[in-house]
Amino acid sequence: MTTATRTDAILSQVEDRLDRFFDDAAQRAVRHSPHYEDLWRELRASAAGGKRLRPRLVLAAYLHLGGATPEPAVELAAAIELLHTALLLHDDVIDGDVERRGAPNLVGAFAAASERAGLPSAAAARWGQSAAILAGDLLLTAAIRLTADLDIAPARRERLVALVDESIFRAAAGELADVAYASGLGTPTPAEIRDMMADKTAHYSLELPLRAASILAGAPEIVGDRLGAIGRSLGLVFQMRDDLLGVFGRSEETGKSASNDLREGKQTMLVAYARESDAWARTAELFGDQGLEETGVELLRETLEHSGARARFEAEIARECDATLALIDAAGLPDALATLLADEARCAAERWA
User: Fold this and answer.
1) Three-state SS string across the chain, please?
2) Domain count within the chain
3) Is 117 part of any domain?
4) Can you give the residue range of the structural domain that contains 149?
5) How far apart are CA 272 and CA 353, in angstroms?
């Protein structure tokens, strides 16, 4: 059995572990209110589907680095997936989103159900947001608990708990910076936006799974450091591509609006580059207008094109992808793991969904 085949087989065990987690929570929730049962039902839906990129990276890196026992890797992969879902839930509240992947998210589902039950729209929205905050909190604590309960050597377990804690700490720092920039509390430079992305997304999303797999497999610390650098760079590629698709993507492919970022005034490297041009000054007052009509959105898109910001941003994505590939080439990883990571980097830089 190849490592790729074994990874796929063990990935099904991660799905089983997530199912057991939600089954247990659902049974416990029965002892409380019906609303709490609803919360866990929607939480399960929030965690379902997706590409399972993070669990796949944990398992693949663990196996390629010589990890022999699948059980702790399954637990760790499930913990990181719960962490990912928790941060998405909180992000939806902060961004005011009611949909994800083209369907109602937990905020939207709770708000819609309460409106049908007779709540006014403002109260229903607050109810949905409150539920999502609590849901995210529950999954954050679950991610830490699963990691702290790993049946491995205490020293490795302590390192993994510290790493998960660091990811949450940095994600909060990045999220706060993102909100500050979007709120107009400062005008960030491209370098400051890059730092924000590294904290908010890259660390937990790609650096954490690769570093964690290295620790779990007992690889030398230098291997973990190299994998961490690869994950950080790869995470930046993913986030920059997301920001490009958030303006120029097609909603039927990405599953999210291609105008919300402009209406919300999201400060991305794309916008930072545009601000350096005279063309942006003529349309800047449209940016961040939540009531902006589609004609205004199109005008902003044209400005981002004609100012050269889009071309410059796409060149930066390509440059970061090349940097990721260089880090992979220099890391001395097993060939199959290096190939897997290189394929992920190229896919991240070129994807349209």
Assistant:
1) CCHHHHHHHHHHHHHHHHHHHHHHHHHHHCCCCHHHHHHHHHHHHHHCCCCCHHHHHHHHHHHHCCCCCHHHHHHHHHHHHHHHHHHHHHHHHHHCCCEECCEECHHHHHHHHHHHCCCCHHHHHHHHHHHHHHHHHHHHHHHHHHHHCCCCCHHHHHHHHHHHHHHHHHHHHHHHHHHHHHCCCCCCCHHHHHHHHHHHHHHHHHHHHHHHHHHHHCCCHHHHHHHHHHHHHHHHHHHHHHHHHHHHCCHHHHCCCCCHHHHHCCCCHHHHHHHCCHHHHCCHHHCCCCCCCHHHHHHHHHHHHHCCHHHHHHHHHHHHHHHHHHHHHHCCCCHHHHHHHHHHHHHHHHCCC
2) 1
3) yes
4) 1-156
5) 23
pLDDT tens, residue by residue, 271-322: 999 999 999 999 999 999 989 999 999 999 999 999 999 999 999 999 999 9
Q: Give me the pLDDT at residue 1, please.
A: 62
**What is the pTM for the complete model shown?**
0.94
Please, what's the largest Cα pairwise distance for the chain?
62
Contact 147, 162 (CB under 8 A): no
User: 10 Å Cβ neighbour count for 242?
Assistant: 18
Q: Does any domain span residue 298? A: no
For the chain, what percentages of helix, strand and coil (3-state, to nearest 5) are there?
A: 80, 0, 20
Output the domain CATH number for residue 48. 1.10.600.10
3-state secondary structure labels for all residues of 68-94: CCHHHHHHHHHHHHHHHHHHHHHHHHH
Given a contact cutoff of 8 angstroms between Cβ atoms, the answer to whether 321 and 345 are in contact is yes
pLDDT above 70: percentage of residues in the chain: 99
Say whether pLDDT at 102 is over 90: no
Please give the helix or strand (H or E) that residue 99 lies within, else none: strand 99-100
Residue 2 in this model has a pLDDT that exceeds 80: no
